[in-house]
Amino acid sequence: MNTLEEGTVAEVDFEKIRRAAKSPQGLIPVVLQHADTLDVLFVGYANELALRETLTSGRAVLWSASRDELWRKGATSGDELEMVDVRVNCEQNALLYLVRPDPGGVCHTTDAEGATRTTCFYRRMTGPSSLEFISGFAPVA
Fold first, then answer.
1. Collapsing DSSP states into helix, strand and coil, what is residue 64?
2. By C-alpha distance, which of 17, 11, 1, 3 is closest to 125?
């Protein structure tokens, strides 16, 4: 079991933005939201190439700050995200991708039945160092 992804101890990574900022790529955050349910699916990053690929392909394309490479969501998992709309915030330093999951999974983690979770936000904070799973997103047994 990966305790970071399946545990109940909060280990919030406050250094992620600092590491992403050291990337040779110019990056901005991207919030990915389900176009129909309005659930927030996950947060990623885009550079100019990822945004161009997203707009051209009609599929969510991001920049992997940890791997420092273009990330075509679903290329390995099969869980693609169909683009519905791309929005930019008032200061033009963040994007919102409104998407439809195809076939339905989003996160790289799985639930107790082994199905890809439909969002990466499957736990809630119950204190400064503790988490609990949200109903319907049980950990893998």
1. strand
2. 11
pLDDT one-digit tens code per residue, 86-115: 999 999 999 999 999 988 789 888 888 888
Residue 1 reports pLDDT greater than 80: no
> Cα 77 vs. chain centroid, distance in angstroms?
14
Q: Is the separation of the CB atoms in 113 and 10 below 8 Å?
A: no
Q: How far apart are CA 84 and CA 16, in angstroms?
A: 28
CA within 13 Å, CB half, 81: 30
Nearest to 87 by CA among 140, 132, 38: 38
Element (H, E) at 15: none
| pLDDT at residue 43 greater than cutoff 60 | yes
Structural domains of the chain, with CATH: 13-105 (3.10.20.810)
CA angle 30, 19, 61 (to 5 degrees): 30
Name the nearest CA neighbour of 101 among 72, 73, 80. Answer: 80
pLDDT computed for residue 140 by the predictor: 62
Residue 84: both structure tokens together: 């519905």
| pTM, full prediction | 0.86
